[in-house]
Amino acid sequence: MMMLAIAASQTKPNLDKFLHQLDQITESQGLNVPPIVNIDKMRSLPQGTFGRIWADLLDANHLQPFTTGTRRKQLHDGVHVLTGYGTDPIGEIEAQAFLLGAKFTIFNLMLGLGLLRMIAQNHQTQTHQVSWERIWQAYQRGVNSQFDPDTWQPELLWHLPLQEVQALFALV
């Protein structure tokens, strides 16, 4: 089985720079939207709801919600919640593969490959292994889902149990 070495550190500064550049590009194209994720509202939801689990994921990983850029970018963390893929580099690769399977476009392929390259280049420190098989499984999961990352409206689903939301997109 072919393995890919993935670094856990030094990725964040590069990722922040990459996301800022992406925001600038999408702003120039008029694609950016006002903030969508209301973390305080999500934290106030009952345990087990999609929104509360989303807020808990961000809190547990000491992350802030994306509040700039396109709708798809701002809702990215919800994909981690729906799929169960982690927010570590391996989980990020799986999430990107899932998204590519759910909606294959050249832009999404380039974005995913760019993120994969950025993560893989930072191999000087702690290294993780991810198999191409796991990437392929995540991609196939996206292909077989009923999920469109460009049109879903999770803000209308935050109050529902996570399993119900996953069932809506054929992810259980």
Write up what this structure looks like.
- With 172 residues, the protein is mainly alpha-helical.
- 56% of the residues lie in helices and 6% in strands.
- The chain is built from nine helices and two strands.
- A two-stranded antiparallel ribbon has the order 1-2.
- The longest helix is centred in the N-terminal third of the chain and has 18 residues, at 11-28.
- The chain starts with a strand and ends with a helix.
- Residues 1-10 and 123-127 have low confidence and may be disordered.
* Low-confidence region ranges: 1-10, 123-127
| First-last Cα distance | 27 Å
Radius of gyration: 16 Å
> Main β-sheet, in a few words?
2 strands, antiparallel
Overall geometry comes to globular
Helix content: 55-70%
Residues in β-strands, percent: 5-15%
Order of helices and strands: EHHHHHHHEHH
Descriptive labels:
single chain, 172 residues, mainly alpha, 2 strands, globular
Please render the helix and strand layout as text:
Layout: E1 3-7, H1 11-28, H2 39-43, H3 50-60, H4 71-74, H5 76-83, H6 89-102, H7 106-121, E2 127-131, H8 132-144, H9 162-168
Antiparallel strand pairs: 1-2
Helix pairs in contact: 3-5, 6-7, 6-8
Question: What does this entry show, briefly?
Answer:
With 172 residues, the chain is mainly alpha-helical.
